[in-house]
Design a protein that fits this description.
The complex is a heterodimer of chains A (about 260) and B (about 625).
Chain A lengths: L5 E8 L10 E8 L6 H11 L19 E4 L2 E4 L11 E5 L5 E4 L2 E3 H11 L22 H11 L6 H4 L2 H5 L5 H13 L7 H8 L13 H5 L6 H16 L6 H7 L10
Parallel strand pairs in A: 1-5
Antiparallel strand pairs in A: 1-2, 3-4, 3-5, 6-7
Helix pairs in contact in A: 3-6, 6-9
Chain B lengths: L1 E10 L3 H12 L4 E4 L16 E2 L13 H11 L6 H21 L9 E7 L2 E7 L20 E2 L5 H15 L3 E3 L2 E8 L4 E8 L5 E11 L20 H8 L5 E2 L4 E8 L9 H4 L3 E3 L7 H4 L9 H16 L9 E4 L4 H7 L2 H11 L8 E10 L2 E3 L12 E3 L4 E2 L11 H22 L7 H20 L7 H15 L3 E2 L1 H17 L15 H25 L8 E2 L5 E2 H4 L1 E6 L8 E6 L18 E2 L22
Parallel strand pairs in B: 1-2, 1-10, 2-7, 10-17, 16-18, 19-20, 21-24
Antiparallel strand pairs in B: 3-6, 4-5, 8-9, 9-10, 11-16, 11-22, 12-15, 13-14, 14-15, 22-23
The chains are: A alpha+beta (about 260), B alpha/beta (about 625).
């Protein structure tokens, strides 16, 4: 019979509300079994070894985005990380950039709400014009699918934690935010003009702050094409800023909402 | 203690909470949402399948209308639902789907032309109409006569929640996430807010509100195995029940979903079967048509879950280290369909099960999934027992679902009830002034503070919250499952009564409890969870019939003569057991009790007087609720 591995979890511990708490790593040992995920492992540690261990789980199915953490040096979702894919020694840190609440728990909620407000993350249409008796406005299914592709972001924070720019400057809005604005840009129901988009992300806090390291795309647990969204929004904003210089014909040719690597 | 004032306080910021909040905020009222997690992480985000609304755009939904949706819902409920509510829902759901489309939901749309669809594993062709091109499409779900479930791939909850959350941001709804409601503030007649605990610092806060809404979802975590998120512990229902004035409706009505996966209990959507997936046994034989010749895999969930359990009991289950299960087969739908319209299913299977559903079978078994029961409200969403208290969504028993809800009717209910109840709350707020009584606030605060001190100091005993919780979950698994009988239910009731007493002697076991402590959160919840478990077990024991998901081996008939009613469970202050009362299932039966057309089973009839078999004078079925 196969011998189950003994896992050694080294977990970051710190309680910012306790003046006596000093940040440190603490070791826990558990026996691995089939289909064990980091969700199961951490719940087991909390139940059997230390009920005060702080971490965040909600759906435990990779859908809600609560459990982003740094797993052996790489941001990822703990719930869908299987221990069999990791070495016996597993090191867990909280995501950087976000405010630490305790141990592995960070405040992603406040961060995302703030950037959402900065980019006015809603469809700018006319809500008052809704007619309860009228047929819905038509949309091509292909476009609906493209919008949903970007709406799949679960705001887990992994892309922000893996972002070189976000680590250096606090006000950088990061890939998830650029993806969100790209979602609205794609949506014909959002009536904002190119200038209005420029106002919210055409700066160093937005698309022009990105250094192009693209760690964001590497770690996205939902495989959202973040690199494309950055490219699409950069191209749109760059063209917008030279609209008085380049001939209209050239601008029209360059202007489209598809990924940059597609043929123009 | 910090005190916040607001017009409307929504406890819970999932789909129902946010939809109500948007309605009040758009009407100009100050609105706040409390949530255990950032709103977009609410369990609504995990809902995959879709929302039922009789738009009738898809060719397979051609000719659909609210009448047919209403009939499907009533049959699905096994005549346990409130038919006024089912009417309001069926009549207004199409409007609500269009409204969220207007706000930004990227519904999948009709593509004109010939398409290959699947039914029961077999392909067929259908031509979508050119005049419907670009309108909201629909897929098939169980227990429905038409394809009626609006969807965005298999991320419907995610996409609608994102959209509502953007509206909350736009209209200035205040969101306090990582906040747990611990007790309602009330004076015995009016609810005027709640005492809440900050899950960042552990501090208590007070919220004064003219109207308070509970929209905290279900309480599936009273079971060990549940598809529910770990936060679905019934926090909102517990606050309501703890007042001793507000009853739980039909707590015994618990839905087990046919396709929880093994071993993680994560759900894969009914859309799998709606899109043509089949259920197979240990011999890879498709067994459902033998039991349900007409609906097969798409009978209602209670029926499919029962048939699966029966089939396993006959020795046809697949044995595994995690117990017996059956297979879900979606291989024939092909790679493109699976990686686009069932993408979340594909991710779950590959990430959590090590199974590639394009080539492999998915291990599934019936798993606790949905609480039909909840805080009993009237048509307007107003809770019984306290003025100014409302509830909507899974937390409530509005009573759209009776004893079994149809897939796609609960996700739909969140926003349909959210809009309807939201409008009623706005009317209430317009004509209402409130006396914020500090005495009531202090009473509620003292109760919570005492409980916290008991747990911190261990002055009542040394019981561990984790042990007590685990025991409750095991009792529910062992004695209050899919098939029930009087003897087992009595065992559950007895054990839960002892356990409830033990829960009064709990004490934190961890050493470092400065600030926020996750153990404190659990310990504060456990006594209330046992109350909800007891309402479920005791209600089930007393209900000596089988209806919808409530299946008694010792009482196999649906008994309309004695049980065409709804259980109301009250938990009086200081009591160790709930007190049960009953009310009519529906004020009238626009659709008289009859045969569901699936599931088999016998009925003991009720000779209802003629005047109860029609709508009241002056009410029009087509416009009611609009």
């Amino acid at each position: 019979m196969k011998q189950n591995r003994k896992l050694h979890l080294k977990i970051f511990r710190h309680n910012p509300l306790d003046p006596d708490s000093v940040p440190h790593m603490q070791s826990f040992y558990i026996t691995e079994y089939d289909s064990m995920t980091l969700f199961i492992a951490l719940m087991q540690i909390r139940e059997e070894q230390d009920p005060s261990l702080k971490f965040d789980f909600c759906c435990r199915a990779g859908i809600c985005g609560s459990c982003g953490m740094v797993i052996n040096g790489r941001p990822g979702l703990a719930c869908h990380t299987q221990t069999k894919d990791l070495p016996e020694e597993i090191t867990l840190h909280p995501l950087p950039v976000f405010k630490l609440l305790g141990d592995l728990s960070v405040d992603t909620g406040t961060w995302y709400r703030n950037v959402g407000a900065r980019i006015e993350a809603w469809v700018h249409g006319n809500d008052g014009a809704f007619d309860a008796e009228a047929e819905e406005a038509r949309m091509e299914n292909g476009l609906a699918e493209q919008i949903f592709e970007l709406d799949r972001c679960i705001e887990c924070g992994c892309c922000i934690a893996a972002c070189g720019t976000a680590r250096m400057r606090e006000d950088f809005m990061g890939a998830a935010t650029i993806n969100r604005i790209a979602r609205f840009y794609l949506d014909p129901r959002d009536e904002r003009s190119d200038d209005e988009y420029y106002d919210v992300i055409g700066n160093d806090q937005g698309v022009f702050g990105c250094m192009g390291l693209l760690g964001c795309e590497d770690v996205c647990p939902k495989s959202i094409p973040l690199q494309d969204q950055l490219g699409i929004m950069r191209r749109m904003l760059a063209l917008n800023s030279v609209k008085g210089i380049l001939p209209k014909r050239v601008l029209e040719k360059l202007k489209h909402k598809r990924p940059c690597h597609e043929n123009h | 203690m910090q005190i916040f004032h607001t017009d409307l306080l929504c406890i819970g910021a999932g789909l129902a909470g946010e939809r109500v909040a948007v309605e009040a905020a758009m009407a100009g009222f100050q609105t706040m949402c409390l949530s255990l997690v950032p709103p977009r992480r609410s369990h609504s985000s995990a809902a995959q399948g879709g929302m039922q609304a009789a738009l009738g755009n898809a060719i397979m939904g051609d000719g659909d209308c609210p009448d047919i949706h209403f009939a499907d819902t009533v049959k699905g409920s096994d005549w346990g639902c409130d038919q006024e509510v089912a009417r309001i829902y069926a009549n207004t759901a199409p409007i609500v789907m269009r409204e969220v489309a207007h706000w930004g939901v990227p519904w999948n749309r009709v593509v004109a032309g010939t398409h290959t669809y699947y039914k029961g594993g077999k392909p067929f062709e259908a031509e979508e109409k050119a005049e419907k091109h670009g309108l909201i499409h629909a897929r098939a779900f169980g227990g429905t006569a038409k394809w009626r479930t609006c969807y965005t791939a298999d991320g419907t909850g995610r996409s609608v929640l994102n959209t509502l959350d953007t509206k909350c941001l736009q209209y200035g709804v205040g969101v306090h996430d990582r906040t747990q409601a611990e007790a309602l503030i009330h004076d015995g007649e009016n609810c005027i807010g709640c005492i809440a605990r900050c899950l960042r610092t552990g501090e208590l806060r007070a919220y004064y509100a003219k109207a308070t809404l509970i929209a905290t979802g279900g309480y599936g975590r009273i079971y060990k195995a549940s598809t529910n998120a770990v936060i679905c512990d019934g926090g909102g229902q517990i606050c309501a029940l703890d007042t001793g004035l507000v009853p739980m409706g039909n707590a015994e009505a618990v839905q087990f979903h046919p396709t929880g996966t093994v071993p993680t209990d994560i759900l894969v959507t009914e859309g799998c079967r709606g899109d043509g997936g089949t259920l197979l046994d240990v011999n890879e034989y498709r067994f459902m048509p033998d039991y349900e010749p007409e609906k097969a895999e798409l009978a209602s969930r209670d029926v499919v879950a029962r048939r699966m359990t029966e089939h396993i009991a006959k020795g046809n289950g697949v044995k595994s280290p995690y117990g017996e299960h059956l297979w879900l087969d979606i291989r024939h739908l092909g790679e493109k369909h699976i990686t686009t319209k069932l993408r979340e299913v594909y991710d779950i299977c590959t990430n959590f099960l090590g199974v590639n559903p394009i080539h492999d079978l998915i291990p599934v078994r019936p798993t606790q999934h949905y609480s039909m029961g909840g805080i009993k409200t009237d048509l307007n969403g107003a809770a019984y027992g306290l003025k100014g208290l409302y509830s909507a969504g899974e937390a409530a028993c509005w009573d759209l679902h009776g004893f079994n809800r149809l897939g796609g009717n609960s996700l739909g209910e969140t926003v349909v009830a959210g809009r309807y109840v939201g409008k009623k709350i706005v009317e209430f707020l317009k004509g209402h002034s409130v006396d914020f009584k500090d005495g009531a606030l202090n009473d509620a605060r003292r109760k919570v503070e005492t409980r916290i001190e008991d747990l911190r100091t261990g002055r009542k005993g040394r019981e561990s919250a984790i042990d007590v919780r685990n025991e409750m979950q095991n009792i529910m698994m062992d004695y209050v499952g899919i098939f029930r009988d009087g003897k087992e239910l009595q065992t559950a009731v007895d054990k839960l009564e002892v356990l409830y007493e033990r829960s009064g002697r709990m004490c934190l076991q961890g050493s470092s409890n400065k600030g926020f402590s996750p153990e404190m959160s659990l310990a504060l919840r456990v006594p209330g969870m046992i109350k909800l478990a007891q309402c479920t077990a005791y209600g089930a024991m007393m209900r000596t019939e089988s209806r919808g998901a409530h299946t008694r081996r010792d009482f196999p008939e649906r008994n309309d003569r004695d049980w065409l009613n709804r259980t109301l469970a009250y938990w009086k202050e200081g009591a160790t057991m709930p007190e049960l009362q009953y009310e009519d299932a529906s004020p009238y039966f626009e659709m008289p009790p009859g045969d569901r057309g699936y599931g088999g089973g016998q009925t003991i009839p009720n000779e209802l007087p003629e005047e109860r078999l029609r709508m009241p004078e002056g009410r029009d079925k087509d416009t009611f609720g609009k």
